[in-house]
Amino acid sequence: MSMTTPSRRRLLVQAALIAGAALTPGAWRSAAAQTRMPDDPFSLGVASGEPTPDGMVLWTKLAPRPLEPAGGMTAAPVAVRWEVAHDAGFRRVAARGEALAVVEAGHSVHVEVAGLRPGRAYFYRFTAAGHASPIGRTRTTPAPGASVDRLRFAFASCQKFESGYYGAYRHLVDDDPDLVLFLGDYIYEQAATNAGVRRHPGAEPVDLAGYRLRYGAYKSDPELRAAHACAPWMVIWDDHEVENDYGGDQDQPETNPASFLRRRAAAYQAYYEHMPLRRRSLPVGPAMQLYRSLDWGRLAQFQLVDTRQHRPRRTCEALADGKSIPDCPERTDPARSLLGAPQERWLMDTLAGSQARWNLLTQQYVMGELERITPTGERRYSNDGWDGYAQTRGRILQQWRDAKVANPIALGGDIHTFIAGDLGLERGRPIGSEFVGGAISSSGAENAAMARLAANNPHIKFTEGETRGYGRVDLSRSECRVTFRGLTSALVPRSPIRDLARFTVEAGRAGLQRA
């Protein structure tokens, strides 16, 4: 994506104004004069994310009436106090401070806490306008290079509000994870329908006010708020945070790119306002820095990538039937990168430099090839994910092999189906494994269709498309244990859950084993 110098300068100024609004004396004087709000401004809950050895991001967003314009807030700034403590009673406070919630950022607050001790659990809360927030639990990562015995994390994706309830999150909280990874489709942008079990508000969002309203509806769910409060989150997006199947500056119905980039800028701003992200991710118009890595001592490194923003135009569009394409030359064109050249270079360098026992590529899709055979015998692929950019996938697998990346695993979402399989450059010779964690609520696929897909792709070892849920991972130095957790039904608010399947990857041995 390119922008003219005046446009980029204007966007940078706008971002600086948002980031610096809390520093102006006038804003603080106005905030100090605020009186008690009649309604609780913490209706969207609290969250933490982006943990480091000495801190994390603490998030909240003031919205006493989240389904009204501006969340029921006026344009006035509001002083927000925060505390971090060693205990849930806040008798031993480790850090405290004050932030300013301003209208330019939708009255969201992103506190970057530092100075804490590594590898510790903490509790946090906010107060503002005479109200106290719920208490959240978070933690710091272990010290750099620390020897770590274990890590439990959960990974989830695809939570269409209308399609089901978020009962899976109640069980995720009970699993007591150290970390939660969300792999995209946090909201769905389509207009409301009467087809599901509940409705999100109104029209399809195309501007900042519309996207803010949609997030307000999703975050009104108490199970989602509880999941955010139970552990730090690391988040990446997929397409529905903006528009279905968008990529780069190209949206699905192929509108004018300039018009679509205005919409993308609004969606990115709303995403930042509602996620526990650092200032480095503050959007500049339609551009936002999202790829990054997270180290958990010497035990694990997570490489989080952005497969939407930087990709080129759709692969083999002239030959596509929807997203389905034949094996056309663009699929294997080495000049086309799903990640874009700068991000791909960053990933290759990060993989080469990793000293972690386990390396977890945290991304949006099924990474292994999904070849579909038509009734006439033609081989077809999707042009939306890795299959549309097969050279990018191949280069990552080659880097896993050539750089001797320790115990590589890909984590994915998007397809609303649980999948487990092996990844390699040659059939039957795995380099790593992948696990796709179903969907929190979005509808999936019939198991008969998934069985046919697995039969055409023998590197896939397990599929389950009719059950909603999430993945849980327990890491130790010797093994990675993955459990797929599935609800009896996402169509009822408090469904029981069961273990659908368990897998083990042994350290130093490529390929998964069914536990």
How would you portray this structure in words?
This protein has a seven-stranded mixed beta sheet, covered by helices on one side. A seven-stranded mixed beta sheet has the order 12-13-15-18-20-19-21. Helix content is 21%, strand content 27%. The chain is α+β, with helices and mostly antiparallel strands and 515 residues long.
What's the SSE blueprint?
Layout lengths: L4 H16 L4 H8 L13 E7 L2 E7 L16 E8 L7 E9 L6 E6 L7 E8 L2 E2 L3 E4 L10 E7 L10 H8 L4 E4 L25 H11 L3 H9 L2 E3 L21 H18 L17 E5 L3 E5 L19 E2 L15 H13 L4 E5 L9 E2 L5 E4 L7 H13 L5 E5 L5 E6 L8 E6 L9 H10 L3 E5 L4 E8 L2 E9 L9 E10 L6 E2 L1
Parallel strand pairs: 9-10, 10-11, 13-15, 15-18, 18-20
Antiparallel strand pairs: 1-2, 2-5, 3-4, 3-6, 6-7, 6-8, 9-22, 12-13, 14-17, 16-17, 19-20, 19-21, 22-23, 23-24, 24-25
Summarize the model shown.
It is built from 9 helices and 25 strands. It has 515 residues and is an alpha+beta fold.
Give a quick set of tags describing it.
alpha+beta, seven-stranded mixed sheet, single chain, 515 residues
Number of helices: 9
**Rg estimate, integer Å:** 22 Å
Beta-strand residue percentage? 25-35%
Quickly give the structural class: alpha+beta
Report the sheet with the most strands, covering strand number, pairing sense and barrel closure: 7 strands, mixed
User: Could you name the ranges where pLDDT drops below 50 across 5 or more consecutive residues?
Assistant: 1-10
Overall morphology: globular
What is the mean predicted local confidence, pLDDT? 94
User: Can you count the beta strands?
Assistant: 25
Taking the alpha carbons of the first and last residues, their distance comes to 46 Å
Helical amount: 10-25%
How do the strands of the widest beta sheet line up side by side? 11-10-9-22-23-24-25
